[in-house]
Specification:
The chain has 10 helices and 13 strands. The chain is an alpha+beta fold. The protein has 2 domains: 157 residues, no CATH class; 113 residues, no CATH class. The strands form 3 sheets. Strands 3, 4, 8, 9, 10, 11, 12 and 13 form an 8-stranded mixed sheet that branches. Strands 5-6-7 form a 3-stranded antiparallel sheet, with no helix packed on it. It is globular and about 70 Å long. It starts with 6 loop residues before the first strand and ends with a helix.
């Protein structure tokens, strides 16, 4: 099975607290370990350095590539990427130390840490003592802090709040209200500024309340069979969908087993009432949106860790963002 998690000498470069995640990969650790100790167990206690890059000309002479350097991992001299001269690495130790004061203050607990894409993306996930619930406490959403330290050119350090719906373990990593973000990104042309991140996170934390308000609003608005099918075909469009077909024709074709929409859109219709937590807000746009996140978190992709990578950093992150906006739009029209 293909994995996005880095495997070194047969061992997944990941440490976790609590239940075994992602097909049992990783090493279970004591919840009382510090972020630095967890980093070491996860095999992330290495640094990166820049080295000059050379090419061979037509005369066989080696020439230094101008304004380019190779990013090399200290533990095994592994090449990670080509970066510019002014690119400043953020070492894993510096990134993980950022978590220390939050953990020591009791404001959060470490959850997982690991390496994706052969060491190009390092992450740490911590549970924040902040949550909200719907339906009299039955449907709980917890808040996590996701720190990503990419050793890749063009990608910056990213810290964001990540809500997770407990009943189905659906993980979201999104912006809210257009450009308003749950987190902050820092590029690699300036030194890592932990104080700047702290100030931004203080503001971003307040935006969790915005997500709570969105969730509460979605629970109050009902979809119809027609509107929810339209929603799924917008989230997962099919370019060959016959636009001149009426909804009744689409539904008849769908029930007859014809592929009138994308596979994921059709699977969403089938999963809508069977997904974990479907009993909470049944018939509401909250149920419809959670069906999308259930699909992206648990059903699409090759494996659990490739799905998680996509939800955090890839196409499904963008899909969840768009799907939330669509759900709000269609709920307002309901």
């Amino acid at each position: 099975m293909a994995h996005e998690l880095e495997i070194v000498n047969g061992k997944a470069q990941m440490a976790y607290v609590g239940q075994v995640p992602w097909h049992g990969l990783g090493t279970k650790v004591d919840p009382n370990l510090t972020p630095t100790e967890i980093m070491e167990v996860a095999g992330l206690n290495w640094s990166v350095e820049k080295q000059e890059v050379f090419y061979q000309n037509e005369k066989g002479k080696y020439i230094r590539a101008p304004k380019k350097q190779a990013l090399i991992r200290s533990s095994d001299n592994k090449y990670l990427d080509i970066v510019s001269d002014d690119w400043i690495p953020v070492q894993n130790q510096d990134a993980f130390e950022f978590f220390d004061e939050y953990v020591k203050a009791g404001g959060m607990e470490m959850h997982t840490a690991g390496s994706l894409k052969d060491g190009q993306i390092i992450w740490a996930l911590a549970k924040v003592n902040e949550s909200f619930s719907l339906f009299g406490g039955k449907d709980e959403v917890d808040s996590y802090l996701l720190l990503s330290n990419p050793h890749q050119f063009g990608k910056g350090v990213d810290v964001r709040f990540t809500p997770i719906r407990v009943v189905c373990n659906n993980t979201l990593s999104m912006s809210l209200e257009g450009k308003a973000s749950l987190g902050i990104s820092l590029n690699h042309r300036k030194e890592f500024d932990a104080e700047k991140v702290k100030l931004a996170l203080a503001e971003a934390s307040n935006k969790m309340n915005t997500y709570k308000e969105m969730a509460q609003f979605l629970t109050t608005k009902k979809f119809t069979q027609q509107s929810v099918f339209e929603y799924f075909t917008r989230v997962w469009p099919k370019t060959t969908l016959k636009s001149n077909m009426s909804f009744d024709q689409l539904m008849k074709s769908f029930k007859d087993g014809e592929k009138v929409a994308s596979r994921n859109a059709l699977q969403s219709m089938e999963t809508l009432d069977t997904q974990p937590g479907a009993e909470y807000g049944r018939g509401s746009w909250w149920q419809a949106y959670n069906c999308v996140t259930y699909m992206t978190n648990h059903m699409s992709g090759r494996s659990d860790d490739t799905r998680m990578q996509s939800v955090w950093y890839g196409s499904n992150k963008d899909r969840n963002i768009a799907a939330l906006g669509m759900a709000i739009e269609m709920a307002e029209a309901a």
